[in-house]
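step: validate -> pass
step: tokenize input -> pass
step: predict -> running
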Amino acid sequence: MSVIQTLNLLSGSKQAFKCSKTLVSADKRLRLKGLRRVSCALEQSQISLKENLIDEFKNFSLGTEEVWHRDYGEIDSGNDIDDRGYISVFLDQIRDSLQWDKEGVTFDKVMLRREDNHDLDQFHADHFVSNPPKIRSKGVMERAIFNLNNIVRYFAVLNIAPEKVNTAIKDPYCLVDYENLLEEVQPIEIEILEIPPMRSPQMIHGICFDAFSTVHAGFGREGDLAAIVSNWSKISARQVL
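step: predict -> pass
step: emit ->
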């Protein structure tokens, strides 16, 4: 049985919450509603792909951990955008493999971890600032995170029913919303999900999740390389009624 600990799970919060940790190996079913395992075929070997992607990071400032698709939609973000195109083309290939339509405004990116992060203190659901708006009242955002390494990668989530998250968390981001949610549902189970490494020369594996109702956090080793792609579904007026 998992040991109950008291941890600060939220960046900027002074509150600590009762929680336990469970490791979910790559061959195990994902229990939390809205999560599923996915795999995508690549057009080139993973070894050369990883080398090329890391080379692209050298075109940005030292310490850059995220490079966003050239059609990135965040307003006045100051984030690093792929203006050379290599990363964007790669992200579009993943979208094609998932049969997700290309979007005019995207929140896709490649991430390179610069240092170990095992603190589990930055849990959040996703919030987006864009034009047109991609917020909870307007639609659903599905995202997929892919492991681009030859070793296991980890993805940490809080085992909280999506219905509770959707009721408590609104846009824009508000720390108090999260504090109230976690206070209500503790003790909380932290699930550390394994994402398997590439098992063939041209196949990557990942986890799909509901970006609005999955409370998640970065977790892993220095040098971890990953890709995230996003799929927006707008709520129609009929669905609202």
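step: describe -> The helical segments are 46-57, 86-98, 162-168, 175-185, 237-240.
step: cleanup -> pass
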